[in-house]
C-alpha cells in the first residue's frame, strides 16, 4: 500500500510501475458505498450502503436484475460515473487499503487500467470505430508505459494472440467492424489485461453474445484469471453463468446487498426470499416438466423505495416488521450473510 | 430435398394431435446484395435456405439457433411479412403464397405474430385500446360492430392486465406489461397459430416466468399453436413440445423436446446444448463442454455440403460435398429428424424429471395475471408497481441494461408524470 514513485500517467522509467501491495491478499474493500442520481423528479438512490471485499485470485459475482445497482457499483469502483448527475454522498472504495474516491484525479487515472480494468457488455460501442484494433490495444502501452509505436504494436500482437484471435499479425490493422461479436469481446479483454491489472471487472461480458461464444469467452476469462491471479468481479443477471464461474456471490436488490454467500450455499440453500424466488423462476436446461413460478410485482422505483425492507411488497413471507424495519445484512451462518428478518426460516425452507 | 414431414405415432398425444395446421415446405428466402452505383445484384444472403416442417393443432414448436441462423426471417415468412423466394407456407392446406387480396387477409387472421422488443413494437402514440383493437378494425367481420371496446377489455383481462387501463399509452407500462399488450394484440382475432419471435428475451428473469406462464395458460384455453422462436435453450425446452434447431438457414435437427435435448444426434445441437450454463454449481466441471472453433460462416457464402462442416469435429470428405438431408435417423431409442451424415446420439444434458415437483409458493407463485393488476383488483396493501409507477428503470432491453442506471436522466422523458397526452 505504499507508493514508491510519484504517481502519474507516464512514469519516468518504463518499468517504474507504482506498486500497490495487497494486505493479506485483500485487493478491494468497498465500504458502505452510496450512490445517488439527481434527476428532475427527485433523488434516485441507486446504491444504498453496499460493502464487500475482493481477494487476489477470487471470482466474485454481483447478481441482480436491471436497476438493482450492479453496474453502478462497478462504475463507482472504476471511477467512471458521470458526476453529476451521479453523486457519492458516502462510502469508500479501498484498493490495497487506499481509498480511490479521495485519490487525486491523475493518480486515479493511473490506477484505472493499470491496476483495475473493466470489460463492458457491448464491445462494438466500447471500441473506437475509426482506429485499427491493434492501435487501440497499443495505446494502453503508449499511454501508460511510454512505449514507442513499434514496441507497443508488438505487444498488441502478443496480446491478440493470447486471447486467441486467429491470424493476429495480419488482423492487428483491422477495424472493429471487421470482427465478429465474440472476436470484438476478445479484443476488449486484450485491452483490459494489457497492463496486468490486479482487478478485472466484467460487466455482463457475454450478455450480447450467442451461447457457444459465451462459453468460449467465459473460459478465456477464467483461464486468464487463474494465470494472473487476478481478482475478478463478474456482473451478471445470469444465474447459470454465476454457477459456472464464481467462488462467491453477492445478490443485489434496489441498491442493497440482500445476500452474500459462496455459490454452493447460495444455490443449495438461499438465505433470502428474493434469491429463493429467482431460483424458482428460471427454467433449467436439465429439467423436464418444470413448473415455473414468478416473483410477483416489480422492482421498486428508485425514486420511491418502500420503507422497511425494499423487497417487502413482493415478498410472500413479509410481516409487519418488514414494512417498518430495514433488515441489516447480518451473518446467518458461517460465511453467509442475509438481509432478511426471517433468514433462518428461509434457509430451513 | 427433405421429405414432407409426416407426424409420427409418438407425436400424437399430450397437446399434439395429428391435425396439421401450418406447413412450411422448402421455404427459401434469399436477400439480394447490391453493390456499385448501378445497384447490381452481386450475391445473395441465404437467410432461410430450404426449411420444411409441420405444425400441429395446439402444439408448441420451438425454433432455436444463434444469431444470424435465419430463425427470425423464418418467423416473418410464416406470417408472410416477407414473401418467400421459393417454397410455400400452407395454412390448413391453402397456399399462402398463392393467395392475394381478400383471401390472403382471411388467411392472415389465423396466423399472428408477437415481436421481441416490447419497447419498439407498440406505437407510442396509440392507446392500448387502439393497439389491441386495431386488428379488429382491419377484420371487421370478426367482432360485431360496437363490440370492439368490450372485446378489447376482454382481451386485456385474458392477458392479466387491468381492463380499466384501456386508455393508457405504452410508456405507462413496464416491459412485462407491454409484452402482455403485444400478446393481447396477437390473439385479438382468435388466431389458430401465434408466431412468437423472442417474446421473453428482453425481459428480466423474474418477469420472464410470468409471461411464459401466461402463454401456456392461453394455449390451454384457446387451443393455440405456437411457433416459439428463441435463442434461450432453457426457455424453449420448458415451453415446447417439439424443437427445431437451425444453423445457417437450415434445420439441423427436429424432434420431440426430449429427443432433441436428451438424445441429440447432430453435432451442432450437441455443442449448443453443452454450452448452456446450468444454474447449479455442483455440476461445475462435471458437464461435458464441447467448444466449437471459429465463428459461424457468412450466410452470403455458406459452405458447400453440410453447412456445419467447417466447425465440426466429425467432418469427413463427404460432408464437404454432400448436403445431408433432414431425415429420420436413429437416436438410440427411436428415431428423429437430423441432418447429419454421421448422426449419432450423444447425451450432453443430464435431465431430471421434475413434473411432480411443485414450486415453493412461499417465495414465488404461478398466478399468470400481471402483479400490479392483481394488486389493483384485490386491493392488496403495499404491492408495488401500479402502472403509474412503471418506467424504463424496471426492465430494460439488453442495450439499455448496459447503460443501466447512469442513463437515468434519459428515462425521465418517459416518466408518466411529465408526459402530456401525445395525441395532436
TrEMBL record, chain A:
Chief location bin: membrane
Keywords for the protein's UniProt record, in alphabetical order: ATP-binding, Cell membrane, Membrane, Nucleotide-binding, Transport
PROSITE patterns named in the record: ABC_TRANSPORTER_1, ABC_TRANSPORTER_2
Pfam families (UniProt xref): ABC_tran, oligo_HPY
Stretches assigned to the ABC transporter domain: 28-279
InterPro entries: AAA+_ATPase, ABC_Ni/Peptide_Import, ABC_transporter-like_ATP-bd, ABC_transporter-like_CS, Oligopep_ABC_C, P-loop_NTPase
Gene3D superfamilies: P-loop containing nucleotide triphosphate hydrolases (3.40.50.300)
MF term (GO), any: ATP hydrolysis activity
Subcellular location: Cell membrane
Membrane topology, from the record: Peripheral membrane protein
UniProt KW Cell membrane keyword: yes
Coiled coil location: none
Gene Ontology BP terms: peptide transport
GO cellular component, one term: plasma membrane
Top-rank taxon: Bacteria
Protein family per UniProt: Belongs to the ABC transporter superfamily.
Name of this chain's protein: Dipeptide ABC transporter (ATP-binding protein)
Organism: Nostocoides australiense Ben110
Gene: dppD
TrEMBL record, chain B:
Compositional bias segments (type: Basic and acidic residues): 410-424
Protein name: Putative peptide ABC transporter, ATP-binding protein
UniProt KW Nucleotide-binding keyword: yes
InterPro entries per UniProt: AAA+_ATPase, ABC_transp_ATP-bind, ABC_transporter-like_ATP-bd, ABC_transporter-like_CS, Oligopep_ABC_C, P-loop_NTPase
Region (Disordered): 379-424
GO MF: ATP binding; ATP hydrolysis activity
An example Gene Ontology biological process: peptide transport
Pfam families attached to this UniProt entry: ABC_tran, oligo_HPY
Similarity remark: Belongs to the ABC transporter superfamily.
SMART domains in the record: AAA
Amino acid at each position: 500500500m505504499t507508493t514508491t514513485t510519484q504517481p502519474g500517467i507516464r512514469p519516468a522509467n518504463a518499468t517504474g510501475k507504482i506498486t500497490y501491495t495487497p494486505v493479506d491478499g485483500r485487493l478491494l474493500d468497498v465500504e458502505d458505498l452510496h450512490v445517488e442520481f439527481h434527476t428532475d423528479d427527485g433523488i434516485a438512490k441507486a446504491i444504498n450502503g453496499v460493502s464487500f471485499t475482493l481477494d487476489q485470485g477470487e471470482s466474485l459475482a454481483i447478481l441482480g436484475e436491471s436497476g438493482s445497482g450492479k453496474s453502478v457499483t462497478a462504475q463507482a469502483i472504476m471511477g467512471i460515473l458521470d458526476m453529476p448527475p451521479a453523486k457519492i454522498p458516502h462510502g469508500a472504495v479501498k484498493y490495497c487499503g487506499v481509498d480511490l474516491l479521495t485519490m487525486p484525479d491523475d493518480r486515479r487515472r493511473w490506477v484505472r487500467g493499470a491496476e483495475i480494468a473493466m470489460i463492458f457488455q457491448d464491445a462494438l460501442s466500447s471500441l473506437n470505430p475509426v482506429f485499427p484494433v491493434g492501435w487501440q490495444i497499443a495505446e494502453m502501452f503508449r499511454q501508460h508505459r511510454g512505449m514507442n509505436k513499434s514496441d507497443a504494436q508488438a505487444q498488441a500482437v502478443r496480446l491478440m494472440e493470447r486471447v486467441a484471435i486467429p491470424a493476429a499479425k495480419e488482423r492487428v490493422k483491422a477495424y472493429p467492424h471487421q470482427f465478429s461479436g465474440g472476436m470484438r469481446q476478445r479484443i476488449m479483454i486484450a485491452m483490459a489485461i494489457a497492463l496486468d491489472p490486479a482487478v478485472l471487472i466484467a460487466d455482463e461480458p457475454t450478455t450480447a453474445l450467442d451461447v457457444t461464444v459465451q462459453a468460449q469467452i467465459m473460459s478465456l476469462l477464467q483461464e486468464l484469471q487463474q494465470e494472473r491471479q487476478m481478482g475478478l468481479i463478474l456482473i451478471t443477471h445470469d444465474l447459470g453463468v454465476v454457477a459456472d464461474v464464481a467462488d462467491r456471490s453477492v445478490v443485489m436488490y434496489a441498491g442493497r446487498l440482500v445476500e452474500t454467500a459462496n455459490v454452493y450455499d447460495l444455490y443449495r440453500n438461499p438465505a433470502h426470499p428474493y434469491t429463493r424466488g429467482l431460483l424458482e423462476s428460471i427454467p433449467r436446461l436439465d429439467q423436464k416438466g418444470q413448473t415455473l413460478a414468478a416473483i410477483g410485482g416489480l422492482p421498486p422505483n428508485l425514486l420511491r423505495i418502500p420503507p422497511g425492507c425494499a423487497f417487502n411488497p413482493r415478498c410472500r413471507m413479509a410481516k409487519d416488521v418488514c414494512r417498518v424495519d430495514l433488515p441489516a445484512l447480518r451473518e446467518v451462518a458461517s460465511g453467509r450473510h442475509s438481509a432478511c428478518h426471517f433468514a433462518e426460516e428461509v434457509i430451513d425452507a | 430435398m427433405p421429405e414432407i414431414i409426416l407426424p409420427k405415432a409418438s407425436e400424437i398425444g399430450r397437446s399434439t394431435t395429428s391435425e396439421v395446421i401450418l406447413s412450411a415446405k422448402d421455404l427459401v428466402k434469399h436477400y439480394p446484395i447490391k453493390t456499385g452505383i448501378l445497384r447490381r445484384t452481386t450475391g445473395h444472403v441465404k437467410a432461410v435456405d430450404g426449411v420444411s416442417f409441420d405444425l400441429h393443432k395446439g402444439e408448441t414448436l420451438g425454433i432455436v439457433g444463434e444469431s444470424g441462423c435465419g430463425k427470425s426471417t423464418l418467423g416473418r415468412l410464416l406470417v408472410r411479412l416477407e414473401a418467400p423466394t421459393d417454397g410455400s407456407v400452407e395454412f390448413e392446406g391453402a397456399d399462402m403464397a398463392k393467395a392475394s387480396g381478400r383471401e390472403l387477409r382471411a388467411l392472415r387472421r389465423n396466423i399472428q405474430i408477437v415481436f421481441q422488443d416490447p419497447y419498439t413494437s407498440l406505437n407510442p402514440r396509440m392507446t392500448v385500446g387502439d393497439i389491441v383493437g386495431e386488428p379488429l378494425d382491419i377484420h371487421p367481420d370478426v367482432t360485431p360492430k360496437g363490440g370492439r371496446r368490450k372485446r378489447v377489455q376482454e382481451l386485456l383481462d385474458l392477458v392479466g392486465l387491468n381492463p380499466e387501463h384501456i386508455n393508457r399509452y405504452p410508456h405507462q407500462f413496464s416491459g412485462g406489461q407491454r409484452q402482455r399488450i403485444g400478446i393481447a394484440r396477437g390473439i385479438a382475432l382468435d388466431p389458430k397459430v401465434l408466431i412468437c419471435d423472442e417474446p421473453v428475451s428482453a425481459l428480466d428473469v423474474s418477469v420472464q416466468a410470468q409471461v411464459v406462464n401466461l402463454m401456456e395458460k392461453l394455449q390451454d384455453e384457446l387451443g393455440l399453436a405456437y411457433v416459439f422462436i428463441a435463442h434461450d435453450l432453457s426457455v424453449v425446452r420448458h415451453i415446447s413440445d417439439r424443437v427445431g434447431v437451425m444453423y445457417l438457414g437450415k434445420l439441423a435437427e427436429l424432434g420431440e423436446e426430449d429427443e432433441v435435448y436428451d438424445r441429440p444426434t447432430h453435432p451442432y445441437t450437441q455443442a449448443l446444448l453443452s454450452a448452456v450454463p446450468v444454474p447449479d454449481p455442483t455440476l461445475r466441471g462435471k458437464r461435458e463442454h464441447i467448444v466449437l472453433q471459429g465463428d459461424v460462416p457468412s450466410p452470403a457464402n455458406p459452405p458447400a455440403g453440410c453447412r456445419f462442416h467447417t466447425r465440426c469435429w466429425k467432418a469427413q470428405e463427404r460432408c464437404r460435398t454432400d448436403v445431408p438431408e433432414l431425415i429420420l435417423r436413429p437416436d438410440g431409442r427411436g428415431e428423429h429428424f437430423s441432418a447429419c451424415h454421421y448422426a449419432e446420439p450423444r447425451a450432453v444434458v443430464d435431465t431430471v424429471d421434475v413434473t411432480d415437483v411443485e414450486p415453493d409458493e412461499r417465495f414465488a407463485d404461478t398466478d399468470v395475471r400481471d402483479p400490479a393488476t392483481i394488486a389493483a383488483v384485490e386491493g392488496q396493501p403495499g404491492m408495488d408497481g401500479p402502472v403509474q409507477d412503471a418506467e424504463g428503470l424496471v426492465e430494460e432491453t439488453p442495450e439499455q441494461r448496459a447503460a443501466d442506471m447512469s442513463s437515468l436522466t434519459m428515462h425521465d422523458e418517459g416518466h408518466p408524470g411529465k408526459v402530456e397526452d401525445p395525441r395532436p
